[in-house]
Amino acid sequence: MDKWVGKVAVVTGASSGIGAATCRRLVDSGMIVVGFARREVRLKELRKELIGKLGEFHYYIVDLCLEQNIQEAFAWVKSTLKSVDVLVNNAGVWRNSDALGNPQDWKLMFDTNVLGSSICSKEAVNIMKELKINGHIININSDIGHYPPTLMANMSVYSATKFSSVSITESLRELLALHMLPIRVTSISPGLVDTEMVEDVMPGAPILKPSNIADAIIYVLAAPQYVNVSEMIIRPTSETMLPFIKDAFQELNINL
């Protein structure tokens, strides 16, 4: 990670969970980190915690559903810190809504999980391209974005947003390669992680820690520039959907 010391990283969803864990690891590695999130109280607490570390932590209040807010945030980072070397698109939202559910829930998930992260990537790439930066964009996706949750209806729309993000991540990697830009792109797709978003979703299931995902981010960043770890799926050991599939069948009065 020595090559990233003093470089600037933007982390979305920085106020808790994977985002906060990632900020801690990057600051410990000597990076200048800007956390994007809506909850200023949490961001202030994180900044206080990280005072005196090898790197620095700053924050900017951002609602990823507002394009102008995102643009203003990246403009602030560029003018204040003079660079964006790494972007970690971590922010995400899940609502208990199936394919016949509340359209406002669908919109929130797509606006945050797909459009918001894509706008962040666009803004970061524009800065990296202008400043000729060997950059890295990391999208935190989900293993549920790699297979349809057939018997978990309340995850269907969320899964669709992650399918979209996985696809967009690879398309972005291809596009930047075609333009011969030295910007690496990585999709990291965790299984169940112990964050606020998944509280009470699957009680008793094997679960990862936010720090496990932060470790994966450090791994892909530390690889030599000519190495792009483009796809990584991380699951808890012994993870299986079978108990939840059985529950779904039982609700439908079907024996399995």
UniProtKB/TrEMBL annotation:
It comes from Acyrthosiphon pisum. This is ACYPI003207 protein. One of its GO terms (molecular function) is oxidoreductase activity, acting on the CH-OH group of donors, NAD or NADP as acceptor. The gene is ACYPI003207. The keyword Nucleotide-binding does not apply. InterPro entries: NAD(P)-bd_dom_sf, SDR_fam. Keywords: Oxidoreductase. Belongs to the short-chain dehydrogenases/reductases (SDR) family.
